[in-house]
């Protein structure tokens, strides 16, 4: 009996950490944005579990100071954000609960063009996806 209980505990422990597994997915094609307008950079986890308790970081891997938006410990943190993104980025908290970590970027600038990474880290794992942004016109 004792053995069975311990076995069950171990099995349920395994399924628990399994259910935490997720993949971060983004668009397969580049995102086109018009200068001056707002754009959504899509990013979500599959399965669509809540990412509210996770770290969500949007950054530009090709830049030296790379941080575009950081959500960590349940709040947005702006201390290391690239200056030119100040006040232009937004994560929707309700969407985070549905596994949607898409970034809203306002008043798009030509300099926003480039490669973005959406990085999502839980206590157990992390994954990321790349979103290419192409900006048209002035
Ligand atoms: C983004 O662009 C790079 C080249 O700059 C390309 O290698 C990569 O496949 C693109 N990824 C997506 C998701 O568009
Ligand atoms: C994800 O959230 C953004 C807003 O942050 C919204 O525009 C978009 O429609 C959502 N995507 C899905 C699949 O619900
Ligand atoms: C998650 O995805 C499932 C299946 O696609 C859907 O039925 C469900 O409504 C989604 N849950 C949330 C919170 O968006």
TrEMBL record:
<dbReference type="GO" id="GO:0050863">
    <property type="term" value="P:regulation of T cell activation"/>
</dbReference>
<keyword id="KW-0325">Glycoprotein</keyword>
<dbReference type="InterPro" id="IPR003599">
    <property type="entry name" value="Ig_sub"/>
</dbReference>
<dbReference type="InterPro" id="IPR013106">
    <property type="entry name" value="Ig_V-set"/>
</dbReference>
<keyword id="KW-0472">Membrane</keyword>
<protein>
    <submittedName>
        <fullName>Butyrophilin 3</fullName>
    </submittedName>
</protein>
<dbReference type="Pfam" id="PF07686">
    <property type="entry name" value="V-set"/>
</dbReference>
<dbReference type="GO" id="GO:1903037">
    <property type="term" value="P:regulation of leukocyte cell-cell adhesion"/>
</dbReference>
<feature type="signal peptide">
    <location>
        <begin position="1"/>
        <end position="19"/>
    </location>
</feature>
<dbReference type="GO" id="GO:0050852">
    <property type="term" value="P:T cell receptor signaling pathway"/>
</dbReference>
<keyword id="KW-0393">Immunoglobulin domain</keyword>
<dbReference type="GO" id="GO:0009897">
    <property type="term" value="C:external side of plasma membrane"/>
</dbReference>
<feature type="domain" description="Ig-like">
    <location>
        <begin position="36"/>
        <end position="134"/>
    </location>
</feature>
<dbReference type="InterPro" id="IPR013783">
    <property type="entry name" value="Ig-like_fold"/>
</dbReference>
<dbReference type="GO" id="GO:0005102">
    <property type="term" value="F:signaling receptor binding"/>
</dbReference>
<keyword id="KW-0732">Signal</keyword>
<dbReference type="InterPro" id="IPR036179">
    <property type="entry name" value="Ig-like_dom_sf"/>
</dbReference>
<dbReference type="InterPro" id="IPR050504">
    <property type="entry name" value="IgSF_BTN/MOG"/>
</dbReference>
<keyword id="KW-1015">Disulfide bond</keyword>
<dbReference type="GO" id="GO:0001817">
    <property type="term" value="P:regulation of cytokine production"/>
</dbReference>
<dbReference type="InterPro" id="IPR007110">
    <property type="entry name" value="Ig-like_dom"/>
</dbReference>
């Amino acid at each position: 009996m004792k053995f069975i209980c311990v076995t069950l505990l171990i099995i349920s422990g395994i399924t628990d950490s399994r259910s935490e597994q997720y993949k971060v997915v983004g668009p397969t094609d580049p995102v086109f944005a018009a200068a001056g307008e707002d754009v959504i950079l899509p990013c979500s986890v599959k399965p669509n579990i809540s990412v509210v308790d996770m770290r969500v970081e949007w950054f530009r891997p090709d830049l030296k100071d790379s941080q575009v938006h950081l959500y960590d410990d349940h709040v947005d943190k702006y201390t290391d954000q690239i200056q030119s993104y100040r006040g232009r980025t937004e994560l929707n908290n309700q969407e985070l609960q549905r596994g949607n970590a898409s970034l809203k970027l306002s008043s798009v600038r030509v300099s926003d063009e480039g490669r973005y990474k959406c990085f999502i880290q839980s206590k157990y794992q992390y994954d990321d996806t790349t979103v290419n942004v192409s900006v048209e016109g002035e």
